[in-house]
Design a protein that fits this description.
Length: 435
């Protein structure tokens, strides 16, 4: 179905964007992730791409700022004339009416681009996320699957705790009309019948629909139906990387090269040491830090960054650079349980500043940033033009390559990791130069 080329996705943060980047690249699509839609249009390479991603920081913003950021992108997005625009959100849907509002983003994109039809895909089985009868479930680090409001991490998220598991109610609280449920039992009839069911549910197109996704085999029918209705009228689709997985499973995205699970990749440029900056305070990342042998460690007390933040960030970055210059891999991380007087946005901005200053030194062979907000702000602070996929590391944590005008940054291996993503030995492997 060539009408969906290029596949266009706009992500609410950089870690999630890199997951979709990897999903599409593994499927054989030529894809780049840009920091700005206008930058994508300026890059002549976009004309040869099968898929284009735009990464934003809307996940950490209040509704007014979300609307402003998406308004800035709208003209360039419209010029790409997508039949289907994927607004990529975290697979856990963690958001609220005041922070990272999915409802505010969907309304803004729909109004500015004239997309009156909205489909939401719940669940991403490849990451242990499942949606049944509208309710979201997620696998935790202990291997057990929890309803999202009872999840040991997401139910207690420090910024956007998931107090409601029913995604219909969760999104309605953010200002969307309550979505109509598309249950898994309908998928047995096939994509064509499902597309007709969608047309009937939409009616005038003003009420969203929510797809249950309980297993990987559900995705082909979902993707086929989405592609069919997008051919008839442009569509806004909200969901995690399972939206791209669904369209790939249905054969709705035309690949320009063989599908691949990775291959030869540069893990560390010129054999230089690895630099990890963790702004995440999640239990998953904490275990990865504990398991990371072979690093020089710099614990960061968040309270240290309250006063004279710029000077203190500079001092920490300078110390990291000294250790890297000695040929030692460095792991700088926030202490997980420490109290502090900074807002989460200011704390992420401070840690992002440290990551950017160290990366610009050219001393690190690999840059790893943990934490969604920190990753988003670090990439913006670095001034990268785009990011491409190299290889798989762990689900939700691909190894990427930075592209920039600055030669110290251009070609730098890069990992942007959400707090909940990656196996326990992720940092240790990267420190050893292994995938």
């Amino acid at each position: 179905m060539p009408g969906l080329r290029p596949y266009l996705f706009c992500a609410d943060d950089f870690t999630g964007a890199s997951d979709t980047l990897g999903t599409l690249a593994r499927g054989g699509l030529a894809v780049r992730l840009y920091l700005d839609a206008a930058e994508a249009l300026r890059d002549s390479a976009h004309l040869t791409l099968d898929a284009i991603g735009i990464a934003t920081a809307t996940r950490s913003l209040p509704p007014e700022a979300i609307q402003a950021e998406l308004a800035h992108l709208a003209d360039a997005l419209a010029r790409m004339q997508p039949r289907l625009l994927h607004y990529k959100v975290c697979s856990t849907f963690d958001s609220s009416p005041t922070v990272g509002s999915i409802g505010a983003a969907a309304r803004s994109l729909g109004e500015r681009l004239g997309l009156t039809r909205l489909a939401v895909v719940g669940g991403q089985p490849s990451l242990g996320r499942y949606c049944h009868y509208g309710n979201l479930f997620a696998r935790a680090a202990d291997g057990a699957v929890y309803r999202i409001d009872r999840h040991p991490v997401m139910g207690r998220h420090p910024v956007t705790p998931m107090a409601e598991a029913d995604l219909r109610l969760h999104l309605a609280a953010q200002g969307l009309p309550q979505p109509q449920l598309v249950e898994r039992g309908l998928y047995r009839a096939g994509a064509a019948a499902l597309a007709e069911r969608l047309e009937a549910l939409w009616g005038d197109g003003r009420q969203p629909v929510l797809f249950d996704v309980g297993e990987q085999d559900d995705l082909a029918a979902v993707g086929g139906a989405l592609a069919a209705v997008a051919e008839r009228a442009p569509l806004l689709c909200v969901g995690p990387s399972s939206v791209a997985e669904a369209l790939l499973a249905a054969g709705a995205l035309r690949a320009s090269r063989p599908a691949s699970g990775g291959g030869a990749a540069v893990v560390a440029r010129d054999g230089r040491p690895c630099f990890v900056l963790s702004g995440s305070r999640s239990a998953v990342t904490e275990r990865q830090i504990e398991a990371a042998g072979g690093f020089a460690r710099l614990p960061i007390e968040p309270g240290e960054l309250v006063h004279d933040t710029r000077r203190r960030c500079g001092e920490i970055a300078a110390r990291c650079a000294e250790l890297l210059a000695e040929g030692r891999s460095v792991l700088a991380h926030l202490l997980p349980g420490a109290e502090h007087g900074l807002s989460n946005v200011k704390l992420a901005a401070a840690t992002a500043t440290i990551a950017a200053e160290v990366a610009r030194s050219g001393l690190a062979g690999t840059l790893v940033v943990a934490g969604g907000d920190t990753s988003s702000m670090a990439v913006r602070a670095l001034g990268l033009t785009s990011i491409s996929f190299q290889a798989d590391l762990d689900p939700g944590a691909p190894l990427c390559l930075a592209h920039a005008a600055d030669p110290q940054l251009d070609g730098l291996p890069l990992v942007l990791k959400g707090g909940q993503m990656g196996r326990e030995d992720l940092f240790r492997r990267l420190g050893q130069g292994r995938i």
